[in-house]
Amino acid sequence: MALDRWIALILLGICIAYGYTAWFAMDANLAPFMRRNPIWPSTFPKVLSVLGVAASLIILVGLEKSEEKIGEIDHRRLGDYFIGQAVVLLALMVVYALCLRPLGFLFSTSAFLIIGSFILGERKWHVMIPVAFIATGSVWYLVQEVLGIFLRPLPMFMGV
Amino acid sequence: MLEGILIGLQTALSLQNLLVVIGGCLIGTFIGMLPGLGPMSIIAIMIPVAITMGDPSAALILLAGVYYGAIFGGSTSSILLNAPGVAGTVASSFDGYPMARQGKAGKALTIAAIASFAGGTIGAILLMIFAPMLSTVALLFHSPEYFALMVVGLSAIAAFAGPGQVTKALLMTILGLVMATVGEGALFNLPRFTGGIMDLQSGFGFITLAMAMFALPEAIFLVLKPKNLGDDGGEIKDLRISRAEARAIAPVIGRQSIQGFFIGVLPGAGATIASFLGYAVERNIAPKHEQEEFGKGSVKGLAAPETANNAACTGSFVPLLTLGIPGSGTTAILLGALIALNVTPGPRLMIDEPQIFWAVIMSMFIGNLVLLVLNLPLIPYIAKLLAIPRNYLIPFILFFTLMGAYIGQNNATELLMLVGFGVCGIALKFANYPLPPLLIGFILGGMMEDNFSRSMQLYGGVSFVLERPMTLGLLVIAAGLIIVPVLRSRLAK
């Protein structure tokens, strides 16, 4: 089965779960006065669930005739591309998200930029490190000091 | 009116105010490039500076400069990095980013600058002429008309429904609408589809979704298949627009300045709908061979939303200045600034304080002109951003996508959601599902449901569709915008 049909199958599942909540679960706790309204919080989701199920089924069953187009990247030959780098970079983003508060903005961001460049094959440490530090410091200064949006600069254990 | 224009020019052209507008444009442009910081946030940040200036005219001129600068800055990140930081610039990335990928970043930014200038300037002329008259027309629009207008805005999805992709585009739109229902709706005040997760109470963040669907998949694709941005040929510093291109975009700019301005006048409609609608209309009226270029780097596809966006921003000043009603988030912040400066906008502003009313309008002309004069020489340097080696550029793009989501919501969970949605976006891109309809559905979904629900409550059912001719007319237009292109492509086969 082609990837677009697999995705349609997943979306069908999402639409069914969404529709189940809208049709059978959402209205249970509705206040009595709201039941007299011509529209309930579940009305719009109900319509969307029906449309979503119908559209997913059309793609899944293949009612709309279309040739399988391979985009910029052929997903069937992912091994031919730099898939390892892409996966590690996505993992690095997750680690950054988890470390941003406990380790502080300055350390996490500098590390993210240096490790990110390293993953992509850069080995010029004398360029990577100053670029990362200058960029991190500039963004932190702009966001926190100029714009007044709080970004914890240092690790949590340092109490800042 | 002539006397008013002269008063406004005298105020706006003083050396101090000229410096103020130049500073405002520069600040707005550079901060606006950061995803997550739209005109609304930047103006809010600049209000204390404006208030300390003391002079209401100078303060408003500063804020107008910041406003126009921020809009242009937002377009820049949209075109160069496919990272639209605000909803109004999403449509600019549809053709702006493909142009940048084809090595035409300089040209794309020039078209954006000229289209923005023209949209803003023509909008200001229309504002001068029609402001008092339009304020009453704007009040004729009620919830049913707004609902129908959102549906017309959704018709922009037809532009992404290529051969055999109509259902995919439709499914993506539905998915966007579904995602917009998560969280507490403005009308019902009940949490929906949150699964008890506190972080979902306010729904998904727009910036998170925009970054996840646009910027992140593009950056990961650049990792998978290495090449430097702008490598496809052309000279990224080349700003020149050919005579044929100028001829092609001139009528688009004319049409979209007018259409965008009138949509901007409607409180609550604003730049986002104007830009989507501008894109959809221009695609639908373009000859068939040009229609196929939309989404692949069409100059018309870039000029249309850029012009409409700026004209709508100018249009949103009509209800603010004439009725004291803020038509958008940004004008709501400006209203706050006006009140803090002891200026009460409304029908009497033009009579009681004409120097302020006209200074604001003149500052729009000067702001747009200054922006064009300042930015055209800067474009080669801004476009050079794409010449940064990929090993450095990609971590920076990923970092700015993360920062955009973090600044917008100030919540680390948002970053995890960004990565999760980003992976979904990559899978959808692999399978050739068009992603812009998802974002269009998400942006318009909340407003559409609110207006639909309000209309249903007011009319006790869907009878409002038949009872209000303007609603019916708009819905017919929307149906035509979706069905006609599909039928036309079927007949062509």
Can you give a write-up of this model?
The complex is a heterodimer of chains A (160) and B (493). With 160 residues, chain A is mainly α. Chain A has 2 domains: 3-70; 79-158, no CATH class. Chain A has helices spanning 3-25, 32-35, 43-61, 83-103, 105-119, 125-146. Chain A is flat. With 493 residues, chain B is mostly helical. Chain B has one domain (2-492). Chain B has 22 helices and 2 strands. Chain B has helices spanning 2-12, 15-32, 39-52, 56-81, 90-101, 105-138, 143-154, 166-180, 206-224, 243-265, 270-285, 288-291, 299-315, 317-323, 329-340, 349-352, 354-383, 390-409, 412-430, 436-459, 464-467, 469-492, and strands spanning 183-184, 191-192. A two-stranded antiparallel sheet of chain B has the order 1-2. In chain B, helix 10 runs parallel beside helix 13 (299-315). Chain B is globular, with a radius of gyration of 22 Å. The chains are: A mainly alpha (160), B mainly alpha (493). Chains A and B meet through helix 1, helix 3, helix 4, helix 5 and helix 6 of A and helix 8, helix 9, helix 18, helix 19 and helix 20 of B.
What oligomeric state is this?
heterodimer
End-to-end gap of chain B? 56 Å
What does the overall shape of chain B look like? globular
Radius of gyration of chain B: 22 Å
Overall helicity of chain B: over 70%
Q: What value does the average pLDDT of chain A take?
A: 87
Q: What string gives the helices and strands of chain A in order?
A: HHHHHH
Biggest interface, residues from each chain: A-B, 71 and 64 residues
The strand count of chain A comes to 0
Largest β sheet strand count, sense and barrel closure of chain A: none
Strand content bin of chain B: under 5%
Short characterization:
The complex is a heterodimer of chains A (160) and B (493). Chain A is an all-alpha fold and 160 residues long.
Primary descriptors:
heterodimer; A: 160 residues; mainly alpha; 2 domains; 65% helix; flat; B: 493 residues; 22 helices; 74% helix; 1% strand
